[in-house]
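A.,

Following up on our hallway conversation. Structure tokens first:
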């Protein structure tokens, strides 16, 4: 059986599953129905094999700890491939492989890769089943951990299979941990393979993932489908698949606003999505924490859904002071991966409490004390939990029609230069802001933490086609929206530091102050308010004196000035780097973005 043979069957789910089974040669094939019974049986099995460790049911009911292989802890961008027919479609920032060459390369890799294991067939929907913005996929996997995670992160069930059997196009997604078990060989708790492939075929809308059981490498509904493949579908159909959280904000006057925000991995999406405002009278409700699909509505607004059903969130740094809503969400029915274990059978990670417990078992299973000199939880340790159990989840968060966006926010982790908040002067300027985001690397992917890298739209690792074409697509989508309903665009930076390396801005719940200013700007744009909210600057509109509520924060004038300082010299260097960055994409960069860069330079010289 060749990969091309498998691809040829992809319109018929039963023929496709048979073909994948013939290629990968599992011992058994199980069709999943997403039921509680199925989940229980899989969990029981994984407790037996040591993949899941039950936590104390009195402390953390229905919850488990998984410890991955120490070499399988994050997304592997260097092993992520976009296999479009035309290399230029993948763009200069993706790893491109010619599709038939990749199929040939993957054939021996997948041949027999599921031997000795069960192959699970998981029909899943991204977005509410049957919704107008929703899409379906079928993942086959030889990992029961992936199946129970897909139960949480997507909608799995018979209703999806019905759609697929009735001819609804589905994204076929093959996943193998790449650890066949020859006769009688004992299994390990976290099977995986040192060689990994996360391969996408945008034209045939296929995903082939091999060698990893972790996160975005393995839960194929998430980055592989809902971002890389969906971004290509969106390009072809006139919508956008983005690395964005979604929230509803309600003002003290009871006005409602919907905001989407794109920050790179581990840069604050989950935290902003679950924000508990410190500003009296304001309310923030969660709709999504990682991915949003945006589509122009019939009324000229930009509508958005969260295609996921759960959160796969960063554990370290999540604590009662920074994210109380997440802490409550995690109080039960949660799968933790790569966090530390306490002696009484609960979990711990850096930032959960101010002081570390005296004794722990770390994420690798070794004894740990505060003097061990290494983190107890892996920096990319995560929780997998249903969105429905979040105390701040919005009413109608899973409305298949989505919500109309009032504002779009771009952000990154920048110790210097970038102000706390700035508003784009136009949609084009907003696209320029998104296209020029750079951020200090985090532990969410392999690489050197802290190193500054470009991450346009927080989509650098997730766009299934040329990033510059993605900017052009954003310009097109925006131009088609109704001018009065088009979202305003902002840029934020919670991470600016003083000369001693301390954050200038308190962040977390205090970010509600920045959100409030943004939606007040929405009111001003719509004529609901007539006071002056902003003043011009070379990089965008900044809050007018007094317009950003900083009451009670105890920020002195010097700190505030530093938060908004725009140094013409460093910004001129920033502009030079942007020009170099744009040059990577050659003539695919839209002229409007070159114009914006010229305007930035002119404004800096004034
Ligand atoms: P992915 O799930 O990888 O896409 O990440 P995410 O964007 O959802 O990141 P998350 O919200 O989990 O944030 C990760 C890290 O950023 C944690 O260590 C947080 O403590 C830190 N963080 C989030 N918000 C703030 C903030 O406002 N200020 C500061 N200083 N740190 C923040
Ligand atoms: C990210 O890295 O942006 C994540 C985690 O949200 S993963 O699902 O592993 O991609
Ligand atoms: Mn993410």
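Then the amino acids I'd put at each of the 606 positions:
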């Amino acid at each position: 059986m060749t990969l091309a043979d498998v691809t040829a069957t992809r319109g018929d789910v039963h023929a496709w599953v048979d073909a994948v089974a013939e290629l990968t040669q599992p011992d058994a094939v199980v069709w999943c129905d997403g039921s509680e019974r199925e989940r229980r049986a899989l969990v029981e099995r994984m407790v037996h094999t040591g993949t899941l460790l039950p936590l104390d049911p009195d402390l953390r009911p229905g919850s488990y700890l998984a410890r991955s292989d120490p070499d399988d802890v994050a997304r592997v961008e260097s092993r992520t491939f976009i296999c479009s027919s035309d290399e230029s479609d993948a763009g200069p920032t993706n790893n491109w492989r010619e599709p038939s060459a990749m199929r040939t390369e993957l054939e021996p890799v997948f041949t027999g890769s599921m031997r000795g294991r069960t192959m699970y067939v998981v029909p899943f929907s991204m977005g509410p089943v049957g919704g107008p913005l929703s899409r379906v996929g079928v993942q086959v996997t030889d990992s029961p951990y992936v199946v129970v995670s897909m139960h949480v992160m997507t909608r799995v069930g018979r209703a999806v299979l019905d759609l697929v059997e009735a001819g609804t196009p589905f994204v076929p997604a093959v996943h193998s941990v790449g650890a066949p078990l020859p006769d009688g060989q004992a299994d390990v708790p976290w099977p995986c393979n040192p060689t990994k492939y996360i391969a996408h075929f945008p034209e045939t809308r296929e995903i082939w993932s091999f060698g990893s059981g972790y996160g975005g490498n393995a839960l194929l509904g998430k980055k592989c489908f809902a971002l890389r493949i969906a971004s290509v579908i969106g390009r072809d159909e006139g919508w956008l698949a983005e690395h964005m959280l979604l929230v509803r904000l309600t003002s003290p006057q009871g006005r409602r606003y919907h905001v989407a925000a794109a920050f790179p991995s581990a840069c604050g999406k989950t935290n902003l999505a679950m924000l508990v405002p410190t500003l009296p009278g304001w309310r923030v409700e969660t709709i999504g924490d990682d991915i949003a699909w945006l589509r122009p509505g019939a009324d000229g607004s930009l509508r958005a859904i969260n295609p996921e059903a759960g959160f796969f969130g960063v554990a370290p740094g999540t604590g009662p002071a920074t994210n109380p809503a997440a802490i409550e969400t995690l109080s039960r029915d949660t799968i933790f991966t790569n966090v530390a274990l306490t002696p009484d059978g609960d979990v711990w990670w850096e930032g959960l409490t101010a002081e570390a417990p005296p004794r722990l078992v770390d994420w690798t299973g070794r004894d740990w004390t505060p003097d061990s000199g290494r983190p107890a939880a892996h920096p990319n340790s995560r929780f997998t939990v249903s969105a429905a159990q979040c105390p701040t989840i919005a009413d109608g968060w899973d409305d298949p029609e989505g919500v109309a966006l009032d504002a779009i926010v771009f952000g990154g982790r920048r110790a210097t230069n970038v102000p706390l908040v700035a508003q784009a002067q136009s949609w084009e300027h907003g696209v320029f802001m998104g296209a020029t985001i750079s951020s200090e690397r985090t532990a969410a992917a392999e690489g050197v933490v802290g190193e500054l890298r470009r991450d346009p739209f927080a989509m650098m690792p997730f766009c299934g086609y040329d990033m510059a074409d993605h900017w052009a697509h954003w310009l097109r989508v925006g131009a088609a929206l109704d001018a009065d309903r088009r979202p305003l665009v902002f840029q934020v930076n919670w991470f600016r530091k003083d000369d001693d390396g301390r954050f200038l801005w308190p962040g977390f719940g205090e970010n509600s102050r920045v959100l409030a200013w943004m939606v007040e700007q929405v009111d001003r744009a719509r004529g609901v308010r007539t006071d002056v909210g902003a003043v011009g600057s070379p990089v965008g509109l900044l809050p007018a004196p007094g317009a950003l509520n900083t009451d009670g924060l105890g920020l002195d004038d010097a700190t505030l000035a530093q938060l908004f300082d725009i140094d013409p010299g460093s910004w001129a260097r920033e502009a030079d780097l942007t020009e170099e960055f744009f040059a990577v994409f050659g003539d695919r960069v839209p002229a409007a973005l070159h114009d914006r860069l010229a305007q930035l330079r002119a404004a800096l010289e004034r």
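The chain has two domains: 3-31+75-237, 255-282+401-605. Curious whether your intuition agrees with the design.

B.
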